From TrEMBL:
Keyword annotations of the record: ATP-binding, Cell membrane, Membrane, Nucleotide-binding, Transport
An annotated Gene Ontology molecular function: ATP binding
Name of the protein in question: Unannotated protein
SMART domains registered for this protein in UniProt: AAA (SM00382)
Any one GO cellular component localisation term in the record: plasma membrane
Keyword Membrane: yes
GO biological process: peptide transport
């Protein structure tokens, strides 16, 4: 069945004096209207880079991009990777929008938030400046900012971190896009505000039937909002499946390590949080074989030296559950203490 967004074999690289930075390597995923795909991984794993390519925000003169990313629109599919830049520009902000990681950097300090939202609206709608400000007030009200009609005149520094993030959401949704990419929308926010922002995105998604891509480094954040999850490491997807499969039947040591680093209120005092030893690999010089092998505690359980000499393929371990690992399903669950049937 055709999904609204279908990404296939997307690779993004940046030539530098030190070598070619392979930021995103052969990435494939899809997301449909009304569904949420979470892309999870440590900083530098390639999460944001691949989605910036979909938005057409890389400089094509200095970036090597291959693969495809089709938006299946009513008028026909468009590959935003190979489409002319002007075509992608017309889609950006109208069909697809992005919430950026740091609202204080993304919002212009010299213009009121109302003017910035109205500008985004005026790109695709005819009307006066008053009409734009009226629409801006409606959007601020939609995202839960009190006294929206008055606050459209305020500047970014007059809002708290959580409120600035709500302004960014209002700006991204002002033209009713079909695809929303949220890049670390809860970073630097306290736990209560994080929950409010995620709940807001869920509510608006249901109201407008949007496809949502949620980029985050925290698996705990996606537990209640995502339908499917892609776990990225070293520029590649190392595991992908439905949310319950990832949480209860993970098939990759890296995913398991991320899960073990999340505090569990139902296991208070019964186990110690585990850190992942080592550092993520340099995307200029990835290690031979599995990129996670230098940090993996289960390398010795794979026969021979396959983990350090062969790059595992993304294979189907269970129905619609794919992972890059030489360990069998039974081995990974025995080693991690997770039940195959749980």
């Amino acid at each position: 069945m055709t999904k609204f967004l279908e990404v296939k074999n997307l690779s993004v690289s940046f030539p530098t004096e030190d070598g070619l930075v392979k930021a995103s390597n052969d990435v494939s995923y899809s997301v449909d209207l009304g569904k949420t795909l979470a892309i999870v991984g440590e900083s530098g794993s390639g999460k944001s880079v691949s989605n910036l390519a979909i938005m057409g925000l890389h400089n094509r003169a200095t970036t090597q991009i291959s693969g495809s990313a089709f938006l299946n629109l009513d008028e026909g599919p468009i590959d935003v990777i190979t489409a002319p830049e002007e075509t992608v520009r017309r889609l950006r902000g109208k069909v697809m929008s992005m919430i950026f990681q740091d609202p204080m950097s993304a919002l212009h300090p010299y213009f009121s938030v109302g003017n910035q939202i109205a500008e985004a609206w005026s790109l695709y709608n005819e009307g006066s400046k008053r009409d734009g400000m009226k629409r801006a007030a409606e959007m601020l009200d939609l995202v839960g900012i009190p006294s929206a009609a008055d606050r459209v005149k305020d500047y970014p520094h007059q809002f708290s971190g959580g409120m600035r993030q709500r302004v960014m959401i209002a700006m991204a949704l002002v033209n009713n896009p079909k695809l929303l990419i949220a890049d670390e929308p809860t970073t630097a926010l306290d736990v209560t505000v994080q929950s409010q922002i995620l709940k807001l995105i869920q509510e608006i998604q249901k109201e407008f039937n949007m496809a949502v891509i949620l980029i985050t480094h925290d698996l705990g954040v996606v537990a209640e909002v995502a339908d499917n999850v892609c776990v990225m490491y070293g520029g590649k997807i190392v595991e992908t499946s439905a949310i319950d499969e990832i949480f209860y039947r993970s098939q990759h040591p890296y995913t398991t390590a991320l899960l073990d680093s999340i505090p569990r209120v139902d296991k208070f005092g019964s186990h110690r949080l585990k850190a992942i030893s080592g550092q993520p690999p340099s995307l200029i010089g990835l290690p031979k074989g599995c990129s996670f092998a230098p940090r993996c505690q289960f390398v010795s359980h794979v026969a021979g030296s396959r983990c350090t000499t062969e790059d595992p393929e993304l294979t189907e371990k269970a129905k619609d559950h794919f992972a890059r690992c030489f360990l069998s399903t039974e081995q990974i669950h025995t080693l991690t203490g997770r039940s195959v049937t749980a």
